[in-house]
Amino acid sequence: MFAIVQTGGKQYKVQPGDHIEIERLEASEGDTVILDKVLLVGEKTETHVGTPLLDYKVEAKVVDNFRGEKIRVFKMKAKKRYQKTQGHRQEITKLEITGIKAVK
């Protein structure tokens, strides 16, 4: 069984046992979180598509909270003596998917 969930403005295809890295959630390491924005659930024989969401939930365990690699943003305007450099490190939460269940 797999599901497509939405979190942090992005969509992820998950199934039990997967590890995904998403934008930071307000949860500490070892906590259980529930992702309730489920867009699609598929099995071997049938697929359920939401309009826009389904009555399913995806349970996950927080494995780690960390910061990603630094990216550098460089802006320049030719012949105008304008240069600007910025850096950014995204806050990331690593999740382990533990189950996909229907809400009754």
Features:
single chain; 104 residues; mainly beta; four-stranded antiparallel beta sheet; 10 strands; 63% strand; elongated
Describe the structure.
With 104 residues, this protein is mainly beta. It has one domain. Helices cover 0% and strands 63% of the residues. It is built from no helices and ten strands. The strands form three sheets. The chain has a four-stranded antiparallel beta sheet, with no helix packed on it. Strands 3-10-7-4 form a four-stranded antiparallel beta sheet, with no helix packed on it. The protein has a two-stranded antiparallel sheet with strand order 8-9. The protein is elongated, with a radius of gyration of 18 Å. The two termini are 18 Å apart. The relative contact order is 0.30.
Overall mean confidence score, pLDDT: 96
Structural class: mainly beta
- Total count of strands: 10
SSE series: EEEEEEEEEE
Helix content: under 10%
| Distance between the first and last residues' Cα | 18 Å
Q: In this structure, how is the largest beta sheet organized?
A: 4 strands, antiparallel
Number of domains: 1
- Spatially, the strands of the biggest sheet line up as 2-1-5-6
- Low-pLDDT stretches are none
Contiguous helical run count: 0
- Gyration radius, rounded: 18 Å
- Based on Cα principal axes, name the global outline: elongated
Strand content: over 45%
